[in-house]
Amino acid sequence: LARARAIGGDAELCAELDEEVAAVLAQPRDAAKVKAEASDMRALIEKEKPPRDLWDIKLIPGGLIDLEFI
Asked: What distance, in Å, lies between the first and last C-alpha atoms of the chain?
């Protein structure tokens, strides 16, 4: 959800969307639950879509996917 943003359209609608996204992101979270869910999601990606080879910089351990989880 951190990537959610309006990229075009009516300015008023974009502003409303930005406010809604900010409100959702500002809600309190259980840090342990978020960490567990992120870890589970990363493990599922690794299982379901392993890197094709050493040069698959998106999916190798430490690759672009891991940066998205930071």
From this structure: 13
pLDDT tens, position by position, for the chain (70 residues)?
A: 567 888 889 999 999 999 999 999 899 999 999 999 999 999 999 999 999 999 999 999 999 999 888 7
Q: How many distinct helices (H) and strands (E) make up the chain?
A: 3, 0
Quote the tokens at residue 53: 């080879």
SS3 50: coil
Task: Round to whole Å and give the CA distance between 63 and 70.
Answer: 12
Residue 2 lies in a domain: no
Full domain range(s) for residue 23: 11-68
Overall number of domains in the chain: 1
